[in-house]
Each structure stands twice: as C-alpha cells, then as structure tokens.
C-alpha cells in the first residue's frame, strides 16, 4: 500500500505546511451561526473545534448553537417564508436554484479543498462531490415548475388538489459528504417552496458555512439558516421544535430512531436516510478485471465512509480465488496519503473516534475467527502518523452473524463470502437489518435482473456502483430509512396535499 516512491513521499512537516497554507486560502470567513441572513454568535456563546483529520490540527472554532439559537433560526425562517419566499413563483425559485448551482460550480476547486481539509476525503473525490452538489440544484431547478395539481368534477362538486410547502423544515446532515448532503437537503426543500434550518455535522461544518456565505446574496434573507453545533444540543432542539413542520435527517440508524421518536411528539413528518450494509454479488460469468474494479470502488470509495458502501462481497466459488487475488493486488496498489494530493486514492477517516470505531470492529473480527486477506491495521508510515488513517482491509471466514458483518463499520473494510447455491446466498445477502443498496456483477441480463429483484434494498446497481443520477430515487428499505431523495418524489416529501372542495350548487 502506498505506491508513492520514497522520494515522492512528502514528510509530515510538508503535509502539515500544505494543509495550513490551503486552510489560509479556503477557510470560510465566518464561523458563526447563519441566521436571518447574518452571521451571529450563539446566545450562550461557545464554540467547538473542527479538526483536520490528516494533520490532527484544529482548522477552526465554530459557533456552538443550542436550543435558543435553533428557536431563533426557526423564527427567522418563518419570517422569511411569510414575508418573501411563499410569494416567489416557481419560475423565480428556479432562477435562485440555478444561480446557486452556477455559484457552486464557479467555486469547485475552493470548495473541494475545503471539504478535503475538514473531512479528509481525497480532493479528486471532493471535486466529484462539488459537481454533484451543483447538479442537485440544477436538477430541482429543472423540475420546480412541475406542480400542475389536479382538478375534478363529481356531481355538484368541483375539486382542486394542490401541493403546498410545509413552510419551515429542519434538516440534519452527516459528515461523510458534507456539501453534497447539504445540497441533497436544500435543493428540494427550496424548490418545493420551503424555508429551512440546516444543521451540519459537528465534525464537518465548514462547507455548509462557506455555502451560506456564497448564497447570501442569492437567497432572500432568512430562507436558508445554518445552525452549527452538537447533535444532542442543536440537532435535538431542531427535532423537538414544534414550529418545524417537516424533518429530513441523514445519518445513522440509531440517531434516526431518536429523531423519529422526537418528531412523534408534534406529529411532524419525517424522512430518514440512514445506514447500510450492502451486498455486492459477483457471478462466475463476469470478467475478473471488471469485478475487481467494481468491488474495489464499491467498498473503498470515500474511505468506505459511504452509506451505500458495498461492504459484504458474495463472490461465486468459480471465480472467488481470482477475484480475491485481484482485490488484494488492488489494495496493495492503493496510494494512501495526503488527500490534498490528486494522486491519493485513500485519505484518512474523518476523526479519531471513527478510527477507533473501525479498529474495534477489526478487533472483534479477529476474535470471531476472521482471516485478514490484506490490511487490518493502521498504516505505520511515518508521514501518515498525524492522520486518522486505516488500511483498506479484506476479511474472510467470518460467520454471517459476526459483528463486523452485521454492523455498519463505515470504514474501508470488506467482509467476503463465497457462494455456489443462489438461494442460500440471497438469504444471507438479505440477512441484515439494513436495506439501502446492493450491487450485481454479471453479463447475464436475466440473472442480473432476477438478483436485483431478490435483493431487499432501495437501490441496486448492475455492473456499476455509487453513480447516483438525479431523477432516479435513492433511499432505503428496512432500517435504512423512509422516503426517497434525488428525484421528483423528493419534492412530495417537502409538500403537503390540500383538497379544495367547491360546491357548485
Ligand atoms: P450521526 O447519526 O451520528 O449524525 C448525523 C447528524 O445527526 C449529525 O449532524 C449529528 O450532529 C446529528 N445528531 C446526532 N445526535 C442527534 C440527536 N440526538 N438529535 C438530532 N440530531 C442528532 O451520523 P454520522 O456519524 O454523522 O454519519 C454517518 C451515518 O450517516 C452512517 O450511518 C451513514 O450510513 C449515514 N448516511 C446515510 C446516507 C443515506 O443517504 N442513507 C447518506 C450519508 C450518510
């Protein structure tokens, strides 16, 4: 692992210097709460640090929003809804969304580097996130006018069915794709005509704050509010605020359950995009090269910190040895390093806490009889010593009910199973609490379709992975969530239906 030749490898000091320089160039100017179109300090004061996971250095101290700050932001959002946003036509909202998309694109390089500093993802992948974020705004700008409503006559009645925005929505996002998740939330909410209070993850608040700076002149005052802070403080205050009419949450299943319980008190509608433990099924007819490339990307993209990561491999006996040899070779060829370097394949995990979470699962896999085909540790290279790095890892030989197989590790760890009986394989593939995604790799279209139908998940890729196309709904079965993002259905999650029944007598 780490294919950089020794002479190319930057020293610890060089990495730190480069990160400091980049931070000086791209950090947002404001690290306060963005409420009512202004950057304001929290009522009770206070900050928390966001740390660069590559160097361990503090990037910025960010405002620690709490309940009264959330209340303020919700009030500002209602004010904006009543005074301006509810009066905007769909065409005007479309222009706003398109301008946001253009602005994000214009700042691609800067936003990508900021995301890399705060999250640790390779800058090449961060650029894909930024382009995806712009694409979200463009997609919802495109469909914003599609709200025809319905009319019907029935005897002496004339009925109109119209969709109306909720007014103010609360949106909570995770740290793995900070800017992308912000755009998945903001774009449909604004398109549907809502104002919003967004709470970014405490590990990665910076790109949402920079986005707030960038859209300040584009979006009317108070339409978008950003309250940074801890989940148990700002997050839970948002989920229990009775003036928030709709909650949209992306994060872990454990917290998603709490959000749902909290929303029950005020019977607030909730959509949840939660965790996953997705199977990837390899059939024997497929080219080994293709299978290796797809499986590698399914698990190791974004350092394994993907809700849809293909983290359980089911490879047919006939090709298992070849596919696993290919994967081991691919892992050995992976460049682990400074994520600001375009040549880096795998960056650090987002935080020390997440490193511990992953290494605890590696320990449990060892105790429960897992054989480590490659990886399984933290890299011992001197130049990576400051960062939250974990080796890409393949584990075989675990029982399917082992902890590392059942739990979402959210790291670069693939558990491997060989199969020859299709029905037994599918039973195992579905034998987890999650149902977010899955992958099928075969050139036989009938098999591919049958397997895609048999996998209990909201999204199944055939011969690709991770590529999410606006327009195709994304969301989970089982404990992976409720609701769909990325598609026209999403607008419906941000609107409520009103029937107007007019008597013609
Ligand atoms: P998390 O659940 O710990 O935190 C997510 C967000 O919830 C953060 O902003 C956090 O501050 C907030 N939060 C924490 N406790 C809260 C509480 N009591 N009330 C309200 N908000 C609270 O998740 P994470 O570790 O940031 O992200 C990783 C998880 O996100 C993984 O499980 C991953 O699968 C999931 N995820 C899902 C999708 C999807 O589309 N399904 C996409 C990305 C990430």
TrEMBL record:
Record-annotated active site = 273
Q: Does the keyword Nucleus apply?
A: no
InterPro entries registered for this protein in UniProt: Ald_DH/histidinol_DH (IPR016161), Ald_DH_C (IPR016163), Ald_DH_CS_GLU (IPR029510), Ald_DH_N (IPR016162), Aldehyde_DH_dom (IPR015590)
Q: Which Pfam families is this protein grouped with?
A: Aldedh
Q: What is the lineage of its organism?
A: Archaea, Methanobacteriati, Methanobacteriota, Stenosarchaea group, Halobacteria
The UniProt entry's sequence similarity note says: Belongs to the aldehyde dehydrogenase family.
Q: Which residues form the Aldehyde dehydrogenase domain?
A: 41-500
Q: Which organism is it from?
A: Salinirubrum litoreum
Sorted alphabetically, the keyword list is: Oxidoreductase
Q: Supply the PROSITE patterns for this chain.
A: ALDEHYDE_DEHYDR_GLU
The GO molecular function terms of this record are: oxidoreductase activity
- What is its quaternary makeup? Homotetramer.
Protein name stated in the entry: Aldehyde dehydrogenase family protein
């Amino acid at each position: 692992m780490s294919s950089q030749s020794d002479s190319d490898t930057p020293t610890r000091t060089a990495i730190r210097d480069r990160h400091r320089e980049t931070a000086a160039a791209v950090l947002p100017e404001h690290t306060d709460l963005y409420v009512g179109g202004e950057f304001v300090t929290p009522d009770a004061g206070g900050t928390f640090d966001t740390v660069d996971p590559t160097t361990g250095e503090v990037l910025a101290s960010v405002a620690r929003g709490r309940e009264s700050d959330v209340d303020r932001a919700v009030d500002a959002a209602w004010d904006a809804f009543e005074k301006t946003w509810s009066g905007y036509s769909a065409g005007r909202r479309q222009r706003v969304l398109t301008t946001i998309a253009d602005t994000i694109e214009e700042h691609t390089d800067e936003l990508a580097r900021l995301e890399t500093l705060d999250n640790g993802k390779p800058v090449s992948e961060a650029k894909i996130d930024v382009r995806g974020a712009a694409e979200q705004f463009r997609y919802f700008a495109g469909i914003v006018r599609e709200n025809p409503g319905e009319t019907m006559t029935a005897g002496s009645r004339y009925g109109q069915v119209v969709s109306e925005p909720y007014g103010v929505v609360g949106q909570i996002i995770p740290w793995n794709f900070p800017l992308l998740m912000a755009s998945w939330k903001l774009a449909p909410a604004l398109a549907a005509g809502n104002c919003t209070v967004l709470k970014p993850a405490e590990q990665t608040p910076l790109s949402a704050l920079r986005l707030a700076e960038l859209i300040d002149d584009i979006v009317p005052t108070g339409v978008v509010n950003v309250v940074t802070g801890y989940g148990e403080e700002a997050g839970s205050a948002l989920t229990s605020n009775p003036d928030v009419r709709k909650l949209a949450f992306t994060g872990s299943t454990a917290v998603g359950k709490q959000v749902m319980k909290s929303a029950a008190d005020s019977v607030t509608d909730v959509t949840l995009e939660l965790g996953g433990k997705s199977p990837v099924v390899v059939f024997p007819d497929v080219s080994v090269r293709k299978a290796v490339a797809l499986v590698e990307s399914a698990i190791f993209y974004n350092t394994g910190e993907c809700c849809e990561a293909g983290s359980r491999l089911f490879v047919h006996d006939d090709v298992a040895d070849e596919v696993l040899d290919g994967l081991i070779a691919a892992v050995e060829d992976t460049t682990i390093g400074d994520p600001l370097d375009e040549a880096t394949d795998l960056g650090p995990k987002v935080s020390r806490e997440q490193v511990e979470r992953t290494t605890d699962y590696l320990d449990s896999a060892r105790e429960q009889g897992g054989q480590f085909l490659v990886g399984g540790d933290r890299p011992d290279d001197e130049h990576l010593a400051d960062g939250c790095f974990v080796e890409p890892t393949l584990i075989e030989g675990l029982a399917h009910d082992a902890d590392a197989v059942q739990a979402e590790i959210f790291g670069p760890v693939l558990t491997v199973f060989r199969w020859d009986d299709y029905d037994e394989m599918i039973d195992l593939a579905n034998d987890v609490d999650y149902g977010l995604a899955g992958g099928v790799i075969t050139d036989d279209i009938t098999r591919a379709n049958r397997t895609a139908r048999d996998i209990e998940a909201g999204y199944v890729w055939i011969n690709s992975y991770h590529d999410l196309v606006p327009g195709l709904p994304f969301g989970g079965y089982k404990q992976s969530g409720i609701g769909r993002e990325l598609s026209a259905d999403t607008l419906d999650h941000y609107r409520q239906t009103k029937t107007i029944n007019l008597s013609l007598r």
